[in-house]
Amino acid sequence: MTHRLAIIFDSSGTLMHMYRVAKETETGEMLRNVASLHLVHGSQALVAIDMPPDTLFNYSSEQTISHLLAENDIGINIGCAGDEITASDVRDVLNRMPDAARVSDLWDVISAVQEKCTSVFYTGAGFVLDVPTGTIPYVVCTAGKLFDGSKSVVTDLLGCADIYIASGDSMRNLAVLAEHLKIPQENVVPVATPLIKERLVQNLKTTHDRVVMVGDELNDLRAIQAADLGVLTLQQRHEKSRKLYDSADMVIGSISELPGILGCVLIKE
Known about the structure:
alpha/beta
């Protein structure tokens, strides 16, 4: 601990503007600029494939996603889930009930994102798994770039607070982001579920005088509620659930507003 104040940032939609394309595997419909969290319901999980999306073009387009993961020992992470679903749960389901979704479906969403986003910080690809049925209703590709002001905000706050990132993204992507923002790698918590984010807040409360959580979606809700100061940012989009609005202590339209509103809680050393 360097400072008495800790600030935790979500990544996607908080520090970074995200562009997502999903493909409904049953109908082939392409959903552009969609929020991944809005695709996950009940006993479903958003599963990130832990490899650069471009490398998926090296595999047969006709291979099923189930076989791709099983035969090539490719890592997966759980970005978010309706229940506490683990990567082992996903592999068990896909082994028992392999779905017909194919690598070609992933190619489609990756190509759609690449056509739209020519200058991005990182990309990721994955799928939504419905655990009870073993089906893959959607495949997804996401690209992200830093919001204007994100780097300067973090730079300013590093002088008076210990900065953390807790995100559902993989360490492969978050390590690059942390290095760019000069955030220590040990302060990065990847593949962070809502429960993991909440526990991080609670753990930091034992070592810091105050803990601030900055997030933008329902997967940040538990951490926002647990923090001494929960900040909801609307920079990615303004349509949020009423529960998020009601749980946040402060609501901002841009990450650039954060240093100003933290003036009352920053502990000068």
